[in-house]
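Minutes, project huddle
Topic: does the predicted pose make sense with nicotinamide-adenine-dinucleotide bound?
PN asked that the exact inputs be recorded in the minutes so nobody has to dig through chat later. Recorded below.
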Amino acid sequence: MSKEILKADTTPPPYQTLGIVGTGAMGRGIAQIAAQAGLTVYLHDLRDGAIDEAREFIGGLWDRGVQKQRLSETDAERFRASLKEATTLADLAGCDIVIEAIVEQLEAKQTLFQQLEEILDDRAVLATNTSSLSVTAIASACRRPQRVIGFHFFNPVPLMKIVEVIPGLRTSDDVTDRVEALGKAMGHFTARATDTPGFLVNHAGRAFGTEALRILGESVTDHATIDRILVDQGGFRMGPFTLLDLTGLDVSHAVMESIYHQYYEEPRFRPSPLTRQRLTAGLLGRKSGEGFYRYVDGKPEVPDEPPLPDASPRPVWIGAEADEAKAQLADLVRGAGWALENGPGPSADALCLVAPLGEDATACTLRLGLPAERCVAVDLLAGLDKRRCLMTTPATLADYRNAAMALLSHDGTPVSAFSDSNGFVLQRVVACIVNVGSEIAQQGVAEPDTIDRAVELGLGYPRGPLAMGDHYGSRRILAILDNLLAATGDPRYRASPWLRRRATLGLRLTTP
Ligand SMILES: NC(=O)c1ccc[n+]([C@@H]2O[C@H](COP(=O)([O-])OP(=O)(O)OC[C@H]3O[C@@H](n4cnc5c(N)ncnc54)[C@H](O)[C@@H]3O)[C@@H](O)[C@H]2O)c1
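Predicted holo structure (C-alpha cells), as shared on screen:
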C-alpha cells in the first residue's frame, strides 16, 4: 500500500455510499479518492459511454499504481469493485450523499437536485462541486435546502489535497460537519468557508494575475520578465502569465470577470482589458498554441533575458532611508569593490541608489532632493539574494542605469531593469495578494490559518497570504499599499482594515 495512492488518514468516512453525477475531469477524480477511502461509489452521466470511460481511466491509474508497487493488487481489485454504474438517476436511490460535477450552469444543477430530491432518502446529502455558482442559489430550488452543500475539489482531484466545504445560508451544521469529516476521510485538507463569490481559494487568487496584468498594461516591463521576477524573487512556482497560458484565457478571463461582477465591481478584482482582447483574438494559451507565450511542441518559447550592458565602476551614494536597506546596499557596493560615498549628499558623478516601498523612482528621488539623471531604485522587499530588480526615472541617464545593472549583477545574480512603477513588480503583486487575503479574513470567509493553508494547497503559493504579509513585514506591505493608493488614487490599493490594524499594532496577520 502506498502513501501516494492511499490516504494517510484512517478515520472512517461518515457515509458508506456515494453517488457521483457527471464523470468528467472532476467527477472521476472524486470517484477515485472516494473508492480509496472505502466508499461504494455509484457513477452516473448523461452521455453514453461516459461511465465506462471514467471507470477505465480510474482503473488505469490503479493499474499503474500496482505496476509501480505503490498499491497492492488486492487493494486495486477492492477499489475497482467499489465503482458501480448508475445507469439512471433512480439507481442512486440508496446513496447517503450525491456529489454533482456536471456542467457549470445554475439551472442544470437546480434541476438535477430537484430530481434527486424525488429519488433519495430525506437524510441524504446533496453536494455540489461548483466553482463559481452560489451554493445558496442552487439550494434555493430544493425542498430541503438544509441538506445542500458546496464540496469544491480542485483539478486534478487526487493530487490537489484540498477541498472547500461551503455551507449555503440554510445548510444544517450537522450536514456541514459530516461532509467535512468525509473530506478528511478522503485524505484532503478541508477548508470550511462561507458561500461567497469564488469561495476561499479562487477569491484569494484574484490578485496574482490581475496585478501582473496591470503592470504589463502600464508597460512597466514585458510578461516574461514579470514571470521571472515572481518566480525568482517571490518563490512562486510559476509566473502569472505562464499560469494564465496553462489555464487558458477562455477559463481565466471568465473567472476574473465573474468574481469582479459578483462583488459589485470591487476594484481589487478589476480584470484587465488586455485579456478580453487576447481572448477575442483566440490567443487562449497552451491549448490554442499561443497565449502570452508561443508554444512549439507543447513547450513555451521564452525570450532570452536582455544582455547586460558593459559599465565601469563609479562612486555610489546610497539614498535609501531605512537603516536595514542602507546596510544591504552598502554590503552590495563593498562586495563589488566599488567606492561607497559617505558624505551628506552625492558627489558630482556618483550613482544614487534609493529603495522605495510602493513609491516610484521619480517620486522617491524628488522627495529626497536627489538628481533624477543619476538615480536608480532597487527593490529590497525580498532582499538581494536572488534576482535583483531596478527601475529608473524617465530622466535617468543610460550610463547610470548601466552602471547600476553592472553593480547589481557583479556576482552573477540575475538582474531585471524596467521603467518606473509604483512598487516595482514583486512589491505590487505581493501587497495585492496580502491585501486580498486580509480582506477575506476581515469578511470572515474562513479562519486565518485556514486561509493560509488553503492558498498554499489550492494555489501553490510559497506561503498563504497572511503568512506572506508577516514574512515580508506587514508594515512594509501597508506602506506599499498606502503609497500606491496615494500615487494612483485607485481604490484597488486601499488597505484592508484587517491588515492596517494588525500592522499598526505590531500583531501577526494571522491574529484572529
Ligand atoms: N475542471 C476544473 O478544473 C474544475 C475545478 C473545480 C470545479 N469544477 C466544476 O466541476 C464541475 C464539472 O467540471 P468538469 O471539468 O469535470 O467538467 P467535464 O465537462 O469534464 O465533465 C462534466 C460531465 O458531466 C456530464 N453532464 C453534464 N450535464 C449532465 C447532467 N445534467 N446529468 C448528468 N451528467 C451530466 C457530462 O457528460 C460530462 O461527462 C463544474 O461545475 C465545474 O465548474 C471544475
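Observations noted during the meeting:
- Residues 21-27, 45-47, 50, 101-104, 108, 112, 129-131, 153-155 surround nicotinamide-adenine-dinucleotide (CB under 6 Å).
- The mean pLDDT is 96.
No decisions taken; revisit at the next huddle.
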